[in-house]
Amino acid sequence: LPLPPGPRSLPFLGNVGDIDMVRPWRTYSEWKAKYGPIVSCRLIGQTVIIINSEKVARQLLDQRSAIYSDRPAGPVPKLFGIDFITAFLPYGDTFRLHRRLFHQALRPDAADSYRDLYLDKARQLLSNLLGSPEAFEKHLFLYTASIIMSVTYGYDKVSWDGPPITSIAKLAELINVGIQPERSAILTAFPILTRLPPWFPGASFQRIAQRTRTLALESMNEPFEFVKRNMAAGNAPKSMVSDLLNEMDGEKHAYSEQAVKQVALTVFVAGFDTSSSTLSSFILAMVLHPEAQRLAQQEIDSVVGIDRLPDFYDRPSLKYVEAVFREAIRWHIVAPVGLPHATSSDDVFEGYFIPKGSLVVPNIWDMSREGHDDPDVFRPERHFASDGTLLPDTIAAKPMWGFGRRGCPGRFIAEAATWSAAVHLLAVFRITKAVDESGKEIEVKEEFTSGVVCRPVPFQCSFVPRSTDREKAIRLGD
Ligand code: HEM
After folding, report:
1. 46, 293, 340, 417: most buried by Cβ count inside 10 Å?
2. Per-residue H/E/C for 58-81
3. Among 54, 262, 269, 274, which residue has the most ligand 1 atoms within 8 Å of its CB, making it the best to mutate?
4. Is residue 154 part of a domain?
5. In a domain, 193, yes or no
6. Is 4 part of any domain?
């Protein structure tokens, strides 16, 4: 049987020269128009299957997940000392154990049990923004980091420039650089390069790898020991690690401390950049679309009133806010091609052969545009049916979280935490373009970085308190 259709490829490099390496999802969408929703190509000796439709992704990655849940084998995670991170594990026993621990700690009801925390940290975010609005990116990072560190290890407060955040955040940043797909493809094709000494011209990746290995060990051990010390002293707050360690005692040998450490560090690595980028993108959308912002604020004022701040029980009544939130996420999807899956055995789909070991790339960017008119336009109204009711498709069911047994286990926490921040920002601030010294508005562009996770290119904006009473209340809560 033939492979799925696709562009002709050169003997060794394959289709490397055909792909927009900065925004590969755009090339994949062009191929969809030519070849259909499932496309095959070659990248330096590797068969790549690109899925350009949610329907096909569900048929293969969800319904045949026993075949489509591996990750590409390559030397990069090991070289960088991060092969224990769940997202890089091959499909096997360790992977299954990690997923079981994630399920225990992050399933929907567990994620709901942290609602007070999301609200508390969102109010802290507002206070930080009142203090230094120009540093909003840093405050978003701190918001995400403090929720993750509290849920995972029980930290009450974390500071941006102190341990353990400095090393973990640096690690997350280096991993983002280290796992760039182009570099992975080259090192996978020429594993000999991984033996180059760090001083060799062009081998700067070896220095990054060395630093990442050290940071990974540090970041795994330091916060873990913090929980163990607290547990020994009898004052460990509830957290993912303390819960798992407590359960481990009752369930001897079911899993090891090492597995708990690995899963815990994965939460930060996988959740930090993705969640803070989502919020940054939401703020950019509000700056560029003041009318949508105004309508959302009008709704908050009428549902919540002006004497209190929003809470999760308001969410079902805040339908326009929900549409704005959904649209901000859809408008610029944070991980446009998610993470590649790999097949662990041969398969046949609609008359096409999909060989074992193929890389399978879901084009989530294209899927988020399917069925929408003018998909580039920011339009919250698209999430309402013609009778004015909000469409039933929830954020948790969207392709943005990936697929099948590899789908994002942090989606419930991520969604609740980003919603909490977004609705608080809307309740308290008018988010506008910043003005320069002469009073002129500083233009803001709809520009995003590229990579596994995409965030808006740094921009300036203003956070103008909408009510002096609320401003006072937040300042007093400092
Ligand atoms: C808006 C924020 C987030 C987005 C958009 C997002 C999206 C994704 C995507 C697309 C994948 C790849 C799924 C696949 O391969 O099919 C993924 C994997 C993963 N995510 Fe998230 N994620 C977010 C936040 C989080 C958070 C907060 C956590 C942890 C609490 C988390 C934990 C993970 C883990 C552990 C994996 C790897 C799963 C595996 O390989 O089995 N993510 N995420």
Report:
1. 417
2. HHHHHCCHHHHCECCCCCHHHHCC
3. 274
4. yes
5. yes
6. no
Instruction: Tell the residue nearest (CA) to atom 18 of ligand 1.
Output: 408
In this structure, which residue's CA is closest to atom 4 in ligand 1? 274
- Answering whether pTM is above 0.90, one says yes
Domain range for 74: 16-476
Is residue 284 in contact with ligand 1, taking CB distance under 6 Å?
A: no
Query: How many Å apart are CA 276 and CA 299, to the nearest integer?
Result: 25
Residue with tokens 């020269």: 17
Whose tokens are 């989606």? That residue is 411
Is 454 annotated as belonging to a binding site? no
Q: What are phi and psi of 141, to 5 degrees?
A: -60, -45
Q: Yes or no: say if 417 and 411 are a contact pair by the CB < 8 Å rule.
A: no
Instruction: Give residue 338 CA to ligand 1 midpoint distance, Å.
Output: 8
Q: CATH number of the domain that 278 lies in?
A: 1.10.630.10
Tally of domains in the chain: 1
Residue 215's alpha-carbon distances to 112, 164, 313, in angstroms, are: 31, 11, 40
Ligand 1 in reach of 400 Cβ (< 6 A): yes
Digit-coded pLDDT (tens) for 9-68: 998 888 988 999 889 999 999 999 999 999 999 988 889 999 999 999 999 999 999 999
Nearest-angstrom CA–CA distance, 289 and 293: 6
The yes/no answer to whether this complex scores an ipTM above 0.95 is: yes
329 lines ligand 1 (CB under 6 A): no
The structure tokens listed for 77 are 């995670």
267 lines ligand 1 (CB under 6 A): yes
- Residue 10 counted as domain residue: no
